[in-house]
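User: My collaborator sent over this chain with a note saying "see what the structure looks like." That's all I know about it. Can you take a look?
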Amino acid sequence: MAPRFSLLLTTRNRRAELLRTLAVMASAILPGNEVLVLDDASEDGSAEAVAAAFPSVRLLRHATRTGYIPARNELLAAARGELAISLDDDAEIVTPGFLERIAEHFESHPRCGVAALRIVWGQSISDAPDVPGEPRQVRSFVGCGHVWRLEAWRSLPPYPAWFEMYGEEGFASFELLRRGWEVDFLPSVLVHHRVELAGRPAGERAWRYRRQLRAGLFLVCLFHPRQVLARHLAYAFRDQMRRLRGSDRRLADLAWVAKELARHALLLHRERRALSPDQWRSWQALEPEVVYSPSGPA
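Assistant: Without extra context I'll predict from the sequence alone. Here is the result:
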């Protein structure tokens, strides 16, 4: 029989974090379900460590690096479960009985394509309280902690590999909306993402900022209706300029993003799939995706 749940983890050169996640998650998932790890050409012995410590895990290995988004596509295609829990290799679900909570939500919400879990960022967490409020439909989800109904995933085009990093969740969310599926925020299931954003080196933060901004503008070009497209692009650049306050580095970041938009112009035109007026109104009425830090919403 096919498992009810598949746990999906993509990793590259983060053996200690991956093993810590598996130590928590594999015991909660197995037996009866499946755990898949895709090692994207790690050089730190990650695959060997997983094979030795967790022989029940399905391990996929790449000899050469393919990238985060193609790896996610491959894992989703390989999953055999009805529901696929996708986590970063440095994230874990800390809510007791989370499988039952997730299954109950999907059973009672047949048009839910993705459940966006509550995510807390930081190196430590004292407890895992429930959050008041009912599940609700939102615009998108965050990659480090969400659950796919694989029936919905298989109805969509795969994540676009040319995004490289960031934006694939927004792409899928727009495609779900176009097909009548929902993204639901499930506040009672808590994910601890063990990363301190402020501790990232300045160079990495700049690298990520560029790709986050580029991905957001890719989504505007692909999905926003023609009547608002130019206005939204102009607003995005004006908003970033307003935040610069004379920063030469940020000016360079914006110049890089502008060049990227020009470089991908033909591809964006060919892949454009604008929402209809009714779909656009539905999307605008939704609450944005929800992310929490230890001190509150972030």
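A starting point for your reply to your collaborator: The mean pLDDT is 91.
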